[in-house]
Design brief:
165 residues; alpha+beta; 2 domains; 5 strands; elongated
Amino acid sequence: MAISRAKKEEIVKTLKEDISSAKAVVFAKFHKLSVGKISDLRRKFRAVGGKYTVSKKTLIGRAFQDAGRGDLPAMEGEVALITGREDELALFKTAGDFAKKEKDAFQILGGFFEGKLIGAETAKTLGMIPSREALIAQVMQVMLGNIRKFMYVVDQLKSKQITNN
């Protein structure tokens, strides 16, 4: 069934608002995903501040241009638009994790990150970066390890100085 021009304009307007306010965008190809899996995926994206939308590629392309984000790259198959307003990396991580789990049914095609269109490989790589909290924990672990080593050296020097006196 054909969509009326007014309905298309309304869809483009909604997509434009989502794209304009998004910190990051992921394009994904989905095929043969059950309704339950799509609902689960939408829930996961909502949890990280994202929104999963399915629309015609021409409407997504028009909204992308209207939002001032450039031309949409050519993509094959059914395309989902995933926009994120909060943690950009969590959006890519969620998409990447789901793509690993559903290899045949869900594939990352690319995205929009820090003002630039990115390819599929870059989008997948962004999904592998640990969360902010995990990175802070890793830095703290390294710092504490170095402090422990320093304190051990100071303690050894102190005990050596006591035995020499």
